[in-house]
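# nightly structure sweep
# worker-07 picked up a monomer target from the shared queue
# config: single-sequence mode, recycle default, output format = structure tokens
# input follows
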Amino acid sequence: MSRAARRFGLALAVLAALGGAGLWTFDQLSFVTTTDARVRARMVTLSAEIPGRLVEAPLMAGDRVRRGAIVARLDDRQARAALAEATLKLKALEIEIEKTRLEAEITHDRGDQRMAGRRAGLDAAAADLSAAEAELRRAERDQARTRTLHASGLVADAALDRAVAALEVARQAVLRAEARVVDARAGVGEATADMRAAAVETRTADALALQAHALRQKIAHLKLDLDRHTITSPIDGVIDEVFAEAGEHVAPGVRLALAHASHGLWMEAHIKETDLPRIKAGAEVEMRFDAAYASCRGTVERIGEAATSEFALIANANPAGVFTKITQRVPVRIGIGPECVGVRPGAMATLRVRAG
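# output follows
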């Protein structure tokens, strides 16, 4: 090969190297690349709110569930019996309340009618008494006048006897009228007692109504307790793992299953803090999942306000006094585009975020 050809080849190699370096530099300036990205999903732990024996666990890992689908069921025979007993007690109490109110109405109506009759009788007795007293006064005047005339010898003894007898009759009539007035007043008192008895029965019905209200509250609590024996899925998603089998006794809060929502997945990338100034919300992201050859696109939704080291369970103590500075990473949430298919929670991906 001639010297000119070697020089030409060397020049082409230099130009190719410079072009490659330029492209690499342009790519580094235009994109922020990271391999520390993982698919995230809304994870839900399914557990029981009450203790009990597990009698049904129909789902297995990998099953898809709809919101409200039964994941597990506890033995609810005791809860159903308690609810049935409280319901029967409430029914009996409602019948007793109705009976007491009806008796109160009957007693009130009877007392009202008796009161009206007794008042009318009292008015009549009072009128008779007034008439008898008036007749007594007339008889007293007649007897006094007859006695005066008899002393003067103007009337016979028989006339005086008749005047004395008429006076005694008038006195007896007054006594009988007074007795009728007393009897009529006693009747009014009895009618008043009936009215008070009706008021007592009404108060008794009100007290029973309060007991019924408390029993209804208890029934509502028992229904809620019965509903708690059935564990349902709060999301549309996939069962990832089942931790209990039928026949086991479970405690409140213990995990029965783990599920994730099948919609609303996102990427969580940890970007170096030195690259954060080049990233803005809304920036386009190219994603290449480790489990797929094809790439798809997403969008930066939110940039974290704290580095991941702040969320560590164990603080990074430095008792030796030797400090090594490490570039921190900040979590960035990235929405996954609709063209990304077959995405699973926990999957890793390489991201290229367009710098802004």
